[in-house]
Design goal:
Elements lengths: L1 E6 L9 E6 L8 H11 L19 E4 L2 E4 L10 E3 L5 E3 L2 E2 L2 H6 L14 H7 L10 H5 L11 H11 L8 H7 L10 H5 L6 H15 L5 H13 L10 H4 L3 E2 L7 E6 L2 H5 L2 H13 L2 E4 L9 H6 L5 H15 L3 E4 L2 H9 L6 E4 H8 L7 E7 L3 H4 L6 H10 E5 L12 H4 L1 H18 L3 E4 L2 H11 L3 E3 H10 L1
Helix pairs in contact: 5-6, 5-8, 6-8, 12-22, 16-18, 18-22, 20-21
Length: 475
């Protein structure tokens, strides 16, 4: 097979460059087998790291076609592009991991050795599988925009925070290492070969501990106070969506399905028109919409920033509202709300995203709308719900021209936009450059927070997918 490998030797003074290699390997060969073949049969000076060959040491992590993988575990394919992790480079595929290793905390024990209970071990276990491949560090969008030391650094801080033998103040240490700079985009989970859920198991837990000690960011404290006081994360400044619509909205023609509609705070009080467009889109597709008026904030902003004390009440109020409405399917149109209802609630009903549902039951194709469109994957939809194809199917049905764009966090999530806006802007600037390369006239997404932030950092119009589809139908 032919592969392309990034080469670099500082001794020669030559800049990093790509070289194509044609090698012979066995069927189902791993990327590491390909690297071995290049070294053994073509260029013995080719440099890369490897050790155990069993996915346990993490030393052979590289990027294949832009994504971090373990070379010993990833199957090689014709045309693969192999590069080092996005870390300081020593030579060829070898990166300098020493600065990252220096940030990883070690157990700081005292003169006494407290008993480690089984409960402690059970809590620590999800965090102790790390093989220090640093794929998460290489992929994290927040590191280059802030003083954030990275996901596995936070993972280790929480691991030690849970260990009764450790006597260091891991909360202050985590804050000093950028605890509040994580956007909880879950890219680290996506690339982790051990599937360690660092945002949920470490970062959100550390933030919760910080909150109990009064160490949360001022903006997060204010937001938590607003939600506890009003049940909403957005102050009421105009007539809300819930105040404008009926409890039950019948479809045009035959009833094909009935759903409960969860609107979310942003679409209820800040960007109302996309929610109205979504209702009209559902009507056009034969869907009866039931809208409980006693629904409240899903709690996502509180969970992400560590204010979890009020979560049970919000969960109960929302679950009771939809159970009372008698629906077995609740539809969301906000990526963050959907991810929260699916992952942080134990609901007696099914939760679906609007793009997921329309593709599932089938939808009327709208007329094409002029312009060039690109799609931004909201992190809470792509990684939080595993939804990628469905928004693209809808977009391709209505856009005159659709240009694909790689997924990347825009910086709006995890409380970073509200708590540390300068860092959110830096992350957004990277995303803006990616948008610019597409040449698109418009950005389409399925998250109100992404809508606001992307418009701010790009200057381009940002449309909700429901709004765009209704433009096609009205046309």
């Amino acid at each position: 097979m032919k592969v392309t490998i990034s080469r670099y030797d500082p001794v020669t003074g030559e800049q990093p460059h790509f070289v194509e290699y044609d090698v012979s390997v066995n069927t189902a060969a791993r990327v590491l087998n390909v690297l071995d073949a290049v070294r053994d049969t073509i260029d013995p000076t080719f440099a890369y790291r490897h050790c155990c060959r069993g996915g346990q040491c993490g030393s052979c992590a590289v990027r294949v076609n832009g994504e971090p993988v373990l070379a010993c575990m990833q199957e090689a394919h014709e045309g693969d592009v192999i590069e080092p992790l996005d870390l300081p480079r020593i030579r060829d595929l070898i990166t300098d991991i020493a600065p990252v290793m220096a940030q990883i905390a070690w157990l700081n024990g005292g003169s006494e050795c407290p008993e480690v209970r089984q409960a402690d071990i059970d809590d620590i276990k999800p965090l102790r599988e790390c093989i220090e491949c640093y794929s998460c560090i290489s992929s994290c969008p927040a590191i280059s925009a802030s003083d954030f030391k990275g996901p596995t650094i936070m993972r280790q801080e929480q691991r030690l925070n849970l260990d009764p033998r450790d006597n260091a103040d891991r909360i202050l240490e985590a804050i000093d290492k950028g605890l509040f700079s994580c956007t909880t985009c879950r890219k680290c989970v996506e690339v982790c070969p051990k599937d360690i859920d660092t945002p949920r198991k470490a970062i959100e837990k550390l933030r919760s501990e910080a909150m109990k000690r009064g160490l949360s960011l001022p903006a997060h404290k204010a937001l938590a106070s607003l939600i506890e006081k009003t049940g909403r994360s957005i102050e009421r400044k105009e007539t809300t969506f819930l105040e404008q619509v009926a409890d039950v909205i019948e479809p045009e023609g035959e009833v094909r399905a009935t759903i409960g509609f969860f609107v979310g705070c942003m679409f209820n009080g800040r960007v109302i028109q996309p929610a109205l467009d979504a209702i009209e889109l559902l009507r056009l597709n034969g869907i009866r919409v039931i809208i409980p008026k006693d629904q409240v904030c899903c709690g996502s902003p509180l969970i992400r920033t560590g204010f979890v004390g009020f979560i049970p009440e919000l969960q109960k109020r929302n679950i009771d509202a939809f159970v009372k409405a008698g629906v077995d399917t609740v539809l969301t149109m906000c990526a963050g709300c959907g991810a929260t209802l699916k992952n942080d609630y134990d609901t007696p009903f099914r939760v679906v995203d609007i793009t997921e549902f329309l593709c599932e039951i089938g939808f009327k194709a709208p007329s094409k709308v002029a312009g060039t469109y690109t799609y931004h994957d909201p992190c809470h939809l792509l990684r939080g719900q595993g939804i990628s194809k469905q928004p693209r199917i809808l977009l391709e049905s209505v856009a005159e021209k659709f240009v694909e764009m790689p997924a990347r966090c825009c910086g709006a999530g995890g409380g970073v936009k509200s708590g540390q806006p300068e860092e959110a802007a830096k992350i957004g600037a990277v995303r803006a450059e990616m948008v610019k390369k597409t040449g698109a006239d418009y950005i389409v997404t399925v998250c109100p927070f992404c809508e606001f932030h992307l418009h701010q950092v790009t200057g381009l119009p940002v449309k909700n997918i429901a709004t765009l589809m209704m433009e096609g139908h009205r046309k």
